[in-house]
Design goal:
single chain; 15 strands; Jelly Rolls; alpha+beta; Pro_4_hyd_alph; 9-stranded antiparallel sheet; globular; signal
Length: about 375
């Protein structure tokens, strides 16, 4: 892709962010009753300070990376000077409804393995915070295994986060922590929308960068059923029927991206005026043969704070906290509901229920509630 094209895309996304921020301010008082169901993986606020940046905030101690990856393959522990270098590839505009782009060879093979090695030992069954009016089996929409990886944890991760910032045109401090996901046979995430609205940290989630770390033998496509692809995207999609699963084909609706190791998709979940873009709904189709690994970076309209410890208060930050707690979300989604190292969004409702499974620091989050009794 010519350099002029890259400059044009970066200029466009910067205009988008400025326009979006202005539109969001104008809509700040608007009701959130029509907000999309909350996405699994909503990080909330995490207290762990990031490791010093390898790209401007001080030198990162390489021993951290060595210790984290000491049992990993040789290729996964190469120095950041080698595998943290900027990947060289090409990007393609897939659609303007939603705004979606494919960057081929966004990550090197060693970077892919590095990210897997960082989170492999911490993978747990993915969960989903209940949406309005829904209880019970909301978690069945997501059947993968996942974990979060602290921002700026290693030089390699810092380099990837900087590349995501350059690709999206949005500073890395607007990113949530990276989510690593593993999809095995039959595992999927049904059609959903990433553009959740929060009253606090980072506010709207406006963009997603989805990176493929390992590709399955068959299936696992990222499918946009309501998208209006560009003619070239549509033509390639229609010509790929034999390579697509039934989910990826979906009777020819929208378009799908077949996972390829090192590739990344960037798409925006909102229009420039700040309203939700329904065309950004997407699904991770069932992985039918082999195993798929992905890394996701969700990006907010404002800086996403994962470093500041907040003094615990006995309060619920969301109107649905009591209902979510009644349906078991304190146990299913402890990061969002109760908090792990920084108090979560529904501490009052969770502290009013069984505390036997709470960690010592979570029990400290409940102390302000005990003082009010």
């Amino acid at each position: 892709m010519p350099r002029s094209g890259a400059r044009l895309r970066n200029a466009w996304v910067r205009v988008f962010v400025v326009a979006f921020a202005a539109a969001s301010c104008a809509r700040a008082e608007e009701s959130t009753e029509t907000e999309e169901p909350r996405l699994i993986g909503w990080l909330g606020e995490v207290a762990r300070p990031p490791a010093p940046s390898a790209t401007g905030d001080g030198a990162t101690n390489s021993s951290i990376e060595d210790a984290l990856l000491s049992s990993s393959s040789e290729s996964a522990v190469k120095g950041a000077s080698e595998i943290g270098a900027k990947a060289r590839g090409t990007w393609t505009t897939l659609s303007w409804s939603p705004r979606a782009f494919l960057y081929q060879n966004f990550l090197t093979e060693d970077e892919c393995e590095h990210l897997i090695a960082l989170g492999e030992k911490k993978l747990e069954r993915s969960t989903v915070v209940g949406s309005k009016g829904k209880e019970g089996d909301v978690h069945s929409a997501r059947t993968s295994f996942g974990t979060f990886i602290t921002r700026r944890l290693t030089p390699t991760l810092s380099a990837v986060e900087d590349r995501v910032a350059e690709y999206s045109g949005i500073p890395w401090r607007h990113q949530e922590q990276l989510q690593l996901l593993r999809y095995e046979k039959g595992q999927e995430y049904v059609a959903h929308h990433d553009g959740i609205v929060s009253k606090g940290n980072g506010e709207k989630r406006i963009a997603t960068v989805l990176m493929f770390l390992r590709e399955p033998e068959f299936g696992g496509e990222t499918h946009f059923p309501d998208a209006t692809p560009l003619p070239a995207t549509r033509s390639e999609f229609l010509g790929s029927r034999a390579k697509l699963s039934d989910c990826g084909w979906n009777e020819g609706r929208g378009f799908s991206v077949i996972p390829r190791k090192g590739d990344a998709i960037l798409f925006f979940s909102h229009h420039i005026n700040g309203t939700s873009d329904d065309a950004a709904s997407h699904a991770s189709c069932p992985t039918l043969r082999g195993i798929k690994y992905t890394a996701t970076k969700w990006i907010h309209e404002k800086e996403f704070d994962t470093t500041t410890f907040e003094t615990p208060m006995c309060e619920d930050k969301e109107d649905m906290c009591d209902q979510w707690a009644n349906s078991g979300e304190c146990e299913k989604n402890p990061v969002f509901m109760m908090g792990i190292e920084t108090v979560g969004s529904c501490s009052k409702s969770c502290c009013a229920r069984d505390r036997s499974r709470l960690s010592d620091i979570q029990k400290r989050f409940c102390e302000p509630c005990d003082e009010k009794m």
